[in-house]
């Protein structure tokens, strides 16, 4: 049995980095249209410049904790896929400044 998936041309590939800290920031700098979703990765111990703290992923009001507004934790070295078409709704925050969050539209 085959699964049919919508694809996007290679030249439509969108990717970048967000610098995450104590204030929630949008994951992507501008509105980016996606076909299948958003792939997020926090550099880990095997990367040249690893993150030192957890990044929390959520909506604009995301907080770096386990409260009602607390985000989904993304540990250093972890990957998260979000099946969304509008990444402008996704924000990230951390308890430590200058954490890197790589993103790729898929």
Q: What is the strand and helix layout of this fold?
A:
Blueprint: E1 14-20, E2 25-26, E3 38-41, E4 55-58, E5 72-74, E6 79-82, E7 91-94, E8 99-105
Antiparallel strand pairs: 1-8, 2-7, 3-6, 3-8, 4-5, 4-7
Explain this structure to me?
The radius of gyration is 14 Å and the shape is globular. The strands form two sheets. A four-stranded antiparallel sheet has the order 1-8-3-6, with no helix packed on it. It is 0% helix and 33% strand. The chain is an all-beta fold. Residues 1-5 have low confidence and may be disordered. It contains no helices and eight strands. It has strands spanning 14-20, 25-26, 38-41, 55-58, 72-74, 79-82, 91-94, 99-105. It has one domain (14-105): Sandwich (Jelly Rolls), CATH 2.60.120.
Mean pLDDT: 89
Domain unit count: 1
| CATH C-level | Mainly Beta
Based on secondary structure, the structural category is mainly beta
The span between the termini is 23 Å
Short structural description:
0% of the residues lie in helices and 33% in strands. The protein is mainly beta.
